[in-house]
Amino acid sequence: MKIQVKIEPTFSLKWPKLHLQFNNHTLYNGFCEPNSGKYFVWTHYAETLMHENKISIEHYDKDGKETITDNENETIKDRAIILKSIIIDGHEVPEVVLFDKPFHINWTQRQIRDQKQRPEYIKNNLYFGFNGTYEYTFEANSEQHYYNNLLEKERLANISNKREIIRPDGKKVEAFEFTGKLVESDEKESITIEELYKRVMNEN
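The structure assignment produced for this chain is given below.
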C-alpha cells in the first residue's frame, strides 16, 4: 500500500519539527523542510497492514517565541506545519474528512501558566501551530476505505443542513439530506459499497 503525506511547513527563526509515524513506527523525525517545491512530501510503502492502521503527525519543539507579530498583533511569521493531503493507494482523503479529526495539543508549561482555559484538542483545523499530535486511521482495504470516505464526506457536508420535519406519528424531529434522501438525525443511513460505486460512476 502506498501512503503519501503532504505538509506545508512555515518558517520562523527555524523550520518546525515533525515526527511522522505509521502504526507506531517512525517514518521521519526531524526538521520539516520543503523537499518538493514549498511542500514536505513523504511517501511510505506499507507491506504489513493491520485491520486498523494509523498515521500520526506530531508537531513539536515550539517554545512559543517563534510567532512574530506586527504592531497590530497580526501574525507575520510562525513556526508551524499545515497538513495539505493524505493519499492512500492513489485515493486522496477528502479535505472535509481530514478537518473532522482532532489535533491533540501538547501544552507547554508557559502556556499552562498563561492560559487557564485550554482545550484538550481542536477540530476543523489543519494548521498545526501548537505542539501536538494529529492522527488519521484507516482500514487495510484501500478501495473500501475510499468509498467509506465518500460516504463520510457527504455526511459531513450535509450534517449542517439539518431542519425539522414532522413524522407520520406527529412527532417533530431534526433531519438532514443524505444521499438525496431526507434522513432523521438520530438514524443511521446505510448504503453498500457497490451502490455508492454506481452512484459515483453515474455522477461522473
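Interim note for the steering committee: The first strand starts at residue 2 and ends at 10. The chain has two domains: 2-141, 162-203.
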